[in-house]
Structure formats: structure tokens, C-alpha cells
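Q: Give me a backbone?
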Amino acid sequence: MPLAGVHPAAGHQPAVPAVGELAPDFELVNQYGEPVRLSALRGRNVAVVFFPFAFSGICTGELCEIRDNLALLEESGTTVLGISVDSKFAQRAYAEKEGYTFDLLADFWPHGAVAEQYGVFDPDSGMAQRGTFIIDADGTVRYVVVNPRGQARDFAGYRAALAGLAGN
């Protein structure tokens, strides 16, 4: 049972933003301690990729697939923001070890607040679920997938969503 006061709406998990809704704005620091605000990226597509923890097996596989296909994302005008509840220090070590050149954002404190805002925070385990939100240049959610614990995302879904944005 969550402790009262740990999360503003203890016992209530906000809904996952639906396709067609304006993406909730947020600001977090990246692996270098630089602030990154979602609304400042308007004019570009953004892939917001929540992952449970740095250095974990499935997460590393998923983020390496993004790393290895980053040119595809960049060609579609898409900025990638990876988000977990890890600190900026852990995010930096993780990015350096795996060669990630995209931003890894620290949803560290208040713990998981942005993941909670997106309806993907698991208060029982203290981590984000595997939620992916592709947001168009106007800030509207165009693709959503939330995978159960232990199930990796399929990169083909990203490709299809980005192809759909290119057709608009």
C-alpha cells in the first residue's frame, strides 16, 4: 500500500494519455544534468520511451535497438527521450557504457513523478513500466504502447507510427 504523501494522488494512478490527446508537459534533467522540457521540442516529433531501470537486460536490448536505428528516427524528425527513475549519474554511466547519444532523463525526484503523470509508474516496484509515446510536432500523442513487465517492445511499432506521421 503506498504511503500517503509519497505521490500526490496516492492510490490513484492517472490514465495513460490516449492517442489524440495533448501530451503532458514535463521537465527533467538528462544524463549531463541539463534540463529538457517536452514543450520546448515542439516542431519535432518526440519518442518518449519509459524504461524500468538502467543496466537491466530487456531495457538495454530495447535502447540498443533505438541506438542502432537512431538514423531512422532522426530522418523522420524525431527526438528520442529515454526516461527511467534512475539518477542522472546512473543515466550518464549507462549512456557512456552503451554508446547512447540520445537523452536519458532522470525521473528520480520526486520519484517517478513523470512516469506517474503518463500512467506508467508502478508504485509497488518503484519503477516505470515499458511505455512508449510518440508525440507529433504539435505536441499531440500519435502512438501509445505499454508493455507488461518482462515483455520487450517491438521496434516495428515505432517504424509504423513514424511512417504514419510522415504521411500527415
Summary: The chain has five helices and nine strands. The first strand starts at residue 27 and ends at 29.
